[in-house]
Amino acid sequence: MEARDWDNDRWARALAEHFFSDDFAGEPVTFAVDPDCLTAITGESSDAAIENLSRTVRTLVMPGHRFVRVLQLARNWQRDGCDGPPPSLPLLALTVLAVSTNEQFGLYKPFRRLLDSKDGDEGMPPGYNDAVPELWEQLRWWLEVHLEGRRGLPTITKHDVYVNIGYSTQQALLRTADRPLLYRFFRSIGLTPGAEQIVPSELRRALAIWSRRRLPRADRLYRLATDANLQRYVDALLQTLASRWDGRLRDPTTGSRAVPLRLMLQVRPVALSFVARRRAEDPGALDLDDLTGGRLHLTSGGPYFEPFPLPIAVSQRVLRDGIELAGPELSFFHEPALAIPFAYDDDLLEWVSTDRIAFDEKHHLLVHRDIRDATVDWLAASNIDGRLDPAATRHLPEGWFLIRDLRIGPRSETAPRDVQDLLGSGGGGERVRLVGGLKVRSLDHAYLTGGTPNVALPRSLEMPIFSIEKEGFDPIERSADGPEFEMARFDLAPGDYRVVHADVAFPFTILEAFRDVPPPDVGSVRTGMEGGNAAGLLASPSTHVPRPSALPALAPAAMVVLGPDPGDQASVSVPLWVESFAGGPLSWVSLDFWVDFEPVWLLVRATEHTAASYVAHPHGAAHPRAGNADERWARLVVQAELVDGALEYVADLWREYEELAAEILA
Amino acid sequence: MNTRSVGDDVLRWASENGAGRWRDLSEAIANASAGRRRRGIRSWILASELSDLGHIDIDWDQGSWSVAPPVLALSPGMGFCAYLAGWRNSALCERFDQATDDLATFPFPVLQDDAPGALFVKCSSIGAIEDLADRMGVALVLDPCAQLSELVSLPSHARLPGAPPPPGEALARFAPATLAWTETDEAEQAGLYRFELHGRRVFRLHEDDDWFIVDRAVGQLRVLAGRDDVVCWHPPSADGRMPRALTVARDVSLPSVAARAAVAASGLLPKKSDQRRAFLNVSRPVAARIADRLGLTLSVARDPIQMEN
Known about the structure:
The complex is a heterodimer of chains A (666) and B (309). With 666 residues, chain A is α+β, with helices and mostly antiparallel strands. Chain A has 18 helices and 32 strands. Chain A is elongated, with a radius of gyration of 39 Å. Chain B is 29% helix and 28% strand.
């Protein structure tokens, strides 16, 4: 079939393969049709490909803008079980193409021209609103519900105001080739897939700063973030993409999975090099282009690819501009940054660059000249371990410096922003976000009392005035200075709050407690030795311990307990030492007695003699049992006197004990 | 609220989150320290204290932790003063407050610097404590010190993983005579050595011309085997104002289970006592068992301990 013979079915299949292929499973996708992609699909020139698609749609709906014909086809297709892609794709593609080829992102005028070159009208074609929005909703349903995301997760959303043109405009904003760059941006700000508080206007502000540094490569993203005319579409799209991003990165050129290159720092002598980490499922051999004409062949070499290290000079330019190594199956990149932390790698037994600085662990830190002094001053002022190593400087690219043995204990609110962005798991980059605090992981934006988060401030923020709002209370308004707004200094009571800056509000909750019972993973880690293990105080295997009985605390000094068998004797005393911890005197009515015999007599030493009190059950049969000639037990009995006023049966019993004791001592 | 410590905050956080990676716990400690404006808290020390108190368990090798089941613990010789250990969030503390709001029980907290405070309750009988545990929905553990002491053991020689000789950089040898570390350039002599391996302090045992990977506690106890000056039992004072105690030379580490067993005797972290750590209320038989299982000889003092303020 010649290109000019493309019909609606063929276009639908080709568009589906290009925009919604199996490669995009689980990934947010946009139907961003533009002349370049039509050329890629058809192999024709840009103009010819546009005319090809236009002619196909024209054949179906013209004359008369009979969009209802496509709607009918699409309804039949759904009714009959969705065999193949939706027949609406060519029509929807043409609406997006109209937007993407128009400088002002208008739709109706260029769309009319594509259907009829003589059409001079600028308004909505008749019947458009009856058919096209429904077709967009059907496409969303097909991707999300019918295919369950196996060909990508749709980003199609109905616009609040622009209910007809909003669909096409939003899809036109972000081309397929832009998405990998956008994901790179998400990674740079530490966006946590699926667990992030997304404020679209904050994302847009951060994207503007990030993409400006990457012009002209990121020019479309920059326009997306800065063009006021697009703002009404961009926020919803960014929110959808950010909330649906699963953390995977793609190469902007090849679309293959992309992973960061790592820098390896050897400390004796100081040397920097690039290394490429290899996962078990990665290919055994790779051919990569470095985008400047150079090629690199990598082969499997354990946890890192060979050659090791990579034959790429770590120069000032590479650190400043970054580097891309693109391959069809796997790609690598290094993003520019002003601070690069290194952690010790147990596989490599060397220091390797890492995305985050973990608290209270030793790191080395490579810093650019622009932030060197601020970093050194911060370390000194905060009394944080870490020292600038002047001897290392001559081994590093010009303008870079090494801070050795950095160890950050408590979270610091005053680190230079480029370092602050690396601390812990709070994410980074040029966006307002909540950081620190005692976060309850299973809840969204919930923190424990005493663990109120701070607000990280982007460098570009103007008028850093924040207010903390709670329903029924006057807002607390404060100006922030430094890289964080220290919200933690307010000891917030439990409740729902919002911290507001300009028109952006971050809702969060302060909780005193969330759980009524322990979580299911309680005790999942155990402390053990060869003899067994324990979960907290629960030993496994456990051993028998006698249940303690209570004895009256007759005297503050040590007392002796006697049992019925000679040899049954133990001392007990009032643990007055506990009072020094309790902060005052305690009432000692009874004492715990743990020995495995029945206590019968409690001997209390008085000034003149030792007094014996009966402590067994009243009328109990605690008669002495001969057999064990324990002289110490016997002496204790004979040296004691029964307390005055004892009942008759007690006096009789005491006599039995005295007689047995006398026998033993005789 | 104001009497809470960093450790209390971390325990509440751990109790709400259940389990996780070491870095999460370390970050929570960093955030809690910042929130209370406390500097100089080392995360591994505070985490070890949480473990010694029986609130959490840590697998240092795997880098993971989990909060321990909640228990009410009663140790002998405390006059029916029980304490809470394990999972402890504010909801459990509230239940504790409600359950002890009567004339039969007397609750009292004991602050422990940066570590979580201990929550005690004084009762009049074991029945009252059993009833309290029932009402709170937690298990009752009797004499946890004795039970945990049964688990104490040292890995046999055959189970120690082998290692290459240590590099000569920042090498120090543990001197059994002084219990101090002495910097050295050579590792010919048998004994315990420590050095920095790319930023982390590690320990190697040199025995019979072979090198073994050990942790600090196991290494020290192997080279101190049989010694009678490392652990010592002290009797209580006659007036009951000073408890019986097991003291351990300050510079000698105990394995986690042994430290937890000794702490469980009182529910309190050890106190400083004349260059030694004093684990309060450890009975003499249990002290002897711990010493024996650690390969040490328990010495017995004539006098009670003297605690520093």
